[in-house]
Amino acid sequence: MTLEPFYPIGTPGQPWGVQEKAQWLARQTRQRSYADQVVSEIDRLRAHFDVSQYGLLSYGQERYPLHALRSRGWDDALPTALVTGGVHGYETSGVHGALQFLHTRALDYAGRVNLLVVPCVSPWGYERIHRWNPDAIDPNRSFRADSPAGESAALWALTEPLRQRCLVHVDLHETTDSDESEFRPALCARDGKPFEPDGIPDGFYLVDDSENPQPAFQQAIIAAVAEVTHIAPADADGMIIGSPVVAPGVIEYPVKRLGLCAGITASRFVTTTEVYPDSPRATPQQCNDAQVAAVCAALDYALAHG
């Protein structure tokens, strides 16, 4: 039987080699500016936060400085919270939700918690509106000490001194229609596996850590976000993206074993947000607002129960 191609690069059933990855990279084009849309916003926040460059990604002739923002007046006696966005650069509200939180709500937590916020972990992916980095590596499967992804390795090094001291980590993501039309087919083609179409959940949901589940924490976030945008229902099989729904709007992954960003610390309270920006029932501003609501609800719950 001849396998029908489902992606324009590679041979069905065969993982990509150097040539196929080069073909894929040649198809990627810069569609927006990290400097103009992200770094400029970070610069506006320097009056209120300590901004540091924690890495520099070099891809060909392009250089991407990586920035982190910390609470001014960091106090080791306070609990620490980590907020990350843009691990997948194409997930826009992850980046701009983190920046909106810094502009509008972060100072409300001054003197209560140390904040470490990384708004855009993957700037090359942000500019190309892509899930991977230029080496066709998914940073969000690569968070480990020997990471092959520069984005993941840099964040790993940044957070290492705080890894055992973090109370809460909120990792801001989106699930988009392009996951089904582009990114999942590309993943299967890259790995030489068959592509099996699936649905995209219509609404917001969370990913808990199956090895450290915190159901009350997750439901506190769901309740807050439900005031901003709709929560994704389970499908006919009781699933969201192939995982059982364990509570309204919540699924679980073993985040550390999968090398996900949410597993980068030993935080007691961990969640990955998933906003649905392609819904006719949600605007880009609602998506950003949902991310901010999720961060605030997570911080409020963790500070009250930590």
From TrEMBL:
Belongs to the peptidase M14 family. Residues 30-306 form the Peptidase M14 domain. It comes from Pseudoxanthomonas composti. GO terms for molecular function: hydrolase activity, acting on ester bonds; metallocarboxypeptidase activity; zinc ion binding. This is DUF2817 domain-containing protein. It comes from the Bacteria. Pfam families: AstE_AspA_cat (PF24827). Its cofactor is Zn(2+). GO terms for biological process: proteolysis. Gene3D superfamilies: Zn peptidases. InterPro entries: AstE_AspA_cat, Peptidase_M14. The lineage of its organism: Bacteria, Pseudomonadati, Pseudomonadota, Gammaproteobacteria, Lysobacterales. Keywords: Hydrolase, Metal-binding, Zinc.
